[in-house]
TrEMBL record:
Annotated keywords: Decarboxylase, Lyase, Pyridoxal phosphate
The keyword Ribonucleoprotein is assigned to this record: no
Cofactor: pyridoxal 5'-phosphate
Name of the featured protein: Uncharacterized protein
GO molecular function: carboxy-lyase activity; pyridoxal phosphate binding
Top-rank taxon: Eukaryota
Family affiliation: Belongs to the group II decarboxylase family.
Taxonomic source organism: Penicillium cinerascens
Sequence positions bearing N6-(pyridoxal phosphate)lysine: K316
Tagged with keyword Lyase: yes
Region Disordered, residue ranges: 1-21
Listed GO biological process terms: carboxylic acid metabolic process
């Protein structure tokens, strides 16, 4: 074969000129521009509408264009992106956002996240990025200490609580089925496999059902148990179910803080009970596990350390940017068996922690840097303060909103959330009227742009949910939100859609 002589590099070749130019000047230009845009956005959080003002048609009109045939200058692309998305960004980075379960981001975590993207490490193997691997080792150690979990537990930094459930439940399948002599990794959940049941209360989050589906267990394996008046699972209810399904492997999913009322299951009673029947206990503590970091709330998690696996989030209460979740397993062997993979082209060292042995992803970002920065910055007292502050602002919001004429406090939890509703004060009104009026109020508050809450149906009643997860929320934000709701209630039935 004849070797083709390489063409000499012509420095006047426009492609080379372009590339040289990009290396030399594009990074400073676009990164400085991004920094300016970011700072402007952050400053605007106090004054701009929390609710996105741009409609979907607006955004489609601005963003949709034919795929360009040719390159566009990087700075121009960035400027256009800013202009096209303006008004389409939800203000959840600020302190006036109280909907769903969405956190903000600490400045130090955001900065570390920028560096993570700059370094662009592939955190699959320690060999690809030793710093990413060791940072995650430390995150695992710190998180276990902070959340009161056994120091021997294995862990994985994943994209969110959904994937933390998936990781933990994969480990549960491995561990439980091994006891029945079934190799879950080799034979999966074929029809001859022992049928796994998942026992959980109706308060569980839908991400449990999705993990169960993703893992091939099928949602029919979930046995829903009735929660008690306080939203938590009673030992006698669990015991009856454990007895009924004692002929096969069982996973019990318990709740550390549910979305509506922040209910905690009584772990110190339920976990030993489940273990008597040989079940694997998994705890969903997406935000609620963080109560363990606060001395005044820690009692809610008494006994939780006895579980077999735990799932939580960094992007909710720790205020690190999306996406960041944490999975922990008491049985590291089952965890590792369910994830690990070996191939000739992958390198491993005996003293390294390769993330691919614990994580469901292959290539992934260096997710540990932002978590490490947040924990280093806050320390134990800083996290405790963050948790306590959010709880106290949530309770203050609930009490003050509940005291407004025409409002009713439905549930004030001991953590960072609760429910209120609004009463239709015309004569002879029914539950349906109150439900409609509550939804009207939720929209009207969002309309003002001053604060943002979301709704939920709880025990048949439409409610407005109050959730505080942002480090930025302060007393002024609480007063501003209450005042905005107060003004709407004063207008009362004069409102167009309230009549
Ligand atoms: C948010 C949430 C989840 C899902 O977590 P993601 O991080 O969105 O995947 C699961 N359980 C509870 C209780 C939650 O609040």
């Amino acid at each position: 074969m004849e070797l083709k002589e390489q063409e000499p590099r012509d420095p006047r070749d426009p492609r080379i000129m372009n590339q040289e130019k990009m290396k030399g000047s594009t990074f400073p230009t676009v990164l400085r521009s991004a920094l300016e845009h970011a700072l402007q956005f952050l400053e605007g959080l106090e004054t701009n509408s929390v609710r996105p003002m741009a409609s979907l048609p607006d955004l489609r009109r601005r963003l949709t264009k034919p795929l360009p045939d040719n390159p566009t200058d990087a700075k121009q692309v960035l400027d256009e992106l800013m202009a096209s998305t303006e008004g389409g960004i939800m203000g959840n980075a600020g302190g006036l956002f109280f909907a769903w379960a969405i956190g903000g981001t600490l400045p130090v975590a955001l900065a570390a996240d920028w560096l993570t993207s700059t370094w662009n490490q592939n955190a699959a193997l320690s060999d690809c990025s030793p710093a990413a691997a060791v940072t995650e080792e430390v995150c695992g150690m710190w998180l276990k200490e902070l959340l009161g979990l056994p120091s021997s537990a294995s862990f994985a930094l994943v994209s969110g609580c959904q994937m933390a459930h998936t990781t933990c439940l994969a480990a549960a399948c491995n561990g439980l089925l091994a006891r029945y002599g079934w190799d879950h990794e080799l034979d999966g959940l074929a029809s001859a496999a022992p049928r796994i049941r998942v026992l959980s209360s109706g308060q569980r989050h839908g991400s449990i059902d999705r993990s169960v589906r993703l893992l091939g267990m099928g949602s029919r394996c979930v046995v829903e148990l009735a929660a008690g008046e306080n939203g938590s699972l009673a030992p006698v209810t669990l015991n009856e179910a454990l007895a009924e399904y004692s002929d096969g492997p069982v996973i019990v999913v318990l709740q550390a803080g549910d979305l509506n009322i922040g209910a905690y299951d009584p772990f110190s009673e339920l976990i030993p009970l489940a273990h008597l029947w040989g079940a694997w206990v998994h705890i969903d503590g997406a935000f609620g596990l963080w109560a363990a970091a606060s001395p005044t709330h820690r009692h809610l998690l008494a006994g939780a350390e006895q579980a077999d696996s735990w799932a939580t989030d960094g992007h909710k209460w720790l205020n690190v940017p999306y996406d960041s979740g944490y999975a922990f397993a008491a049985h590291s062997e089952a965890h590792r068996n369910s994830m690990s993979y070996r191939a000739s082209y992958l390198t491993h060292h005996a003293d390294a922690r390769d993330q691919i042995d614990w994580n469901p992803e292959w290539s992934r970002r260096g997710r540990g840097f932002a978590t490490y920065a947040a924990l280093h910055h806050l320390g134990k007292t800083g996290v405790a303060d963050l948790i306590q502050r959010c709880c106290s602002h949530a309770q203050s919001l609930l009490v003050q909103i509940g005291a407004l004429p025409g409002a009713e406090l439905v549930w004030k939890s001991s953590v960072n959330r609760g429910l209120v509703r609004f009463l239709d004060r015309r004569a002879d009104t029914t539950l349906a009227d109150h439900n409609r009026w509550t939804d009207t109020l939720i929209s009207a508050v969002a309309e003002t742009g001053e604060a943002f809450f979301s709704g939920t149906t709880w025990r048949g009643q439409r409610c407005m949910r109050v959730s505080v997860l942002n480090w930025q929320t302060d007393e002024d934000d609480v007063s501003r939100a209450v005042a905005a709701i107060g003004r709407i209630l004063e207008q009362g039935h004069a409102m167009p859609d309230g009549t």
